[in-house]
Design brief:
about 230 residues; about 65% helix; single chain
C-alpha cells in the first residue's frame, strides 16, 4: 500500500502497491482515448457505446482506490479544506478572467448576454459543475495522486498532470492550450489542498469565462478527439 501523509496525499516517491502507478495512469488514459478517438468512428453517435470505456475507467479507478486503501477524504471528497483550496484558486482565476476579458474586448467577442440569463441558466451551470467534477476526479484524485507516488509533489508532477489533461483535448489547438494552463493551476492547488469540489467549481466557472470571452470559432465548438473533425 502506498504511504499517505496526514493530509491524505501520497508521501515521498514511488512506493510498492498493487500495481505500477504509471501503469494505472496509462489504463485510464487509454480508456479516455478510446472514447474520444475510436467509439465515434466505429459506432457513430451511439452514446451507450461511448459510455463503455468511460464506465470502465471509473470502475478501474474505484478498484484501485480500494486496493490501495485510499479513503474518499484522501482523494479529495471533503469540505474541511474547501476554504483553503478556494483561497489558492481565486487569485489566478481572477487574473485569468481579466486577461480573457481583455482578449474578448480586443477581438470583439465578449458575450455578456449569456450571463444575464440568470436563473434560467441554473441547470446548465449545474451540469457544467458535474462535468467539471467528472474531469477533476480522474485528473487529480487519481492521475495526480498516482504521479505523486512516482515523482512526489512538485513541478514535475504538476507538469505531467497538465500535459495529460492537454493531451486528452487534442487536436483542438486552443482548447488544448487552455486546458494545459488550467491543468497547471488545478494540479498545483490539489497538491496543497486536495478538494475536488473546489476544483470542479473553478473548472466550471473558467469554462463559462472561456466561452463568453474568446471567439467561439477558435474553440472548435469545444470538440475533442475524432469529433473535432466533424
Amino acid at each position: 500500500m502506498a504511504e499517505v501523509s496526514a493530509a491524505g496525499a501520497p508521501a515521498g516517491r514511488a512506493r510498492r502497491g498493487p500495481a505500477s502507478p504509471l501503469a494505472e495512469i496509462s489504463v485510464v488514459i487509454f480508456c479516455v482515448l478510446v472514447a474520444e478517438w475510436a467509439v465515434l468512428p466505429l459506432f457513430g453517435r451511439n452514446y451507450l457505446a461511448g459510455l463503455v470505456p468511460v464506465v470502465a475507467a471509473f470502475a478501474f479507478m474505484l478498484l484501485s482506490h480500494r486496493a490501495r486503501r485510499e479513503s474518499a477524504r484522501a482523494v479529495g471528497w471533503r469540505l474541511d479544506n474547501l476554504g483553503r483550496a478556494l483561497a489558492l484558486l481565486l487569485p489566478p482565476m481572477i487574473a485569468s478572467t481579466l486577461l480573457l476579458a481583455l482578449v474578448g474586448w480586443l477581438c470583439g467577442s465578449l458575450r455578456p448576454g449569456v450571463l444575464r440569463a440568470g436563473w434560467a441558466m441554473a441547470p446548465t451551470y449545474l451540469s457544467m459543475f458535474v462535468w467539471g467534477l467528472m474531469q477533476q476526479y480522474p485528473l487529480q484524485g487519481f492521475i495526480n495522486r498516482r504521479a505523486q507516488m512516482v515523482w512526489g509533489r512538485g513541478p514535475r508532477t504538476t507538469l505531467f498532470v497538465a500535459s495529460v489533461f492537454a493531451l486528452l483535448h487534442l487536436p483542438n489547438p486552443w482548447l488544448t492550450l487552455a486546458t494545459f494552463c488550467g491543468g497547471l493551476l488545478w494540479a498545483w492547488v490539489y497538491q496543497r489542498a486536495p478538494n475536488l469540489i473546489a476544483l470542479a467549481f473553478s473548472h466550471s466557472l473558467m469554462t463559462v469565462v472561456l466561452v463568453t470571452t474568446v471567439p467561439y470559432s477558435s474553440l472548435g465548438g469545444m470538440r475533442v478527439g475524432y469529433g473535432y473533425f466533424l
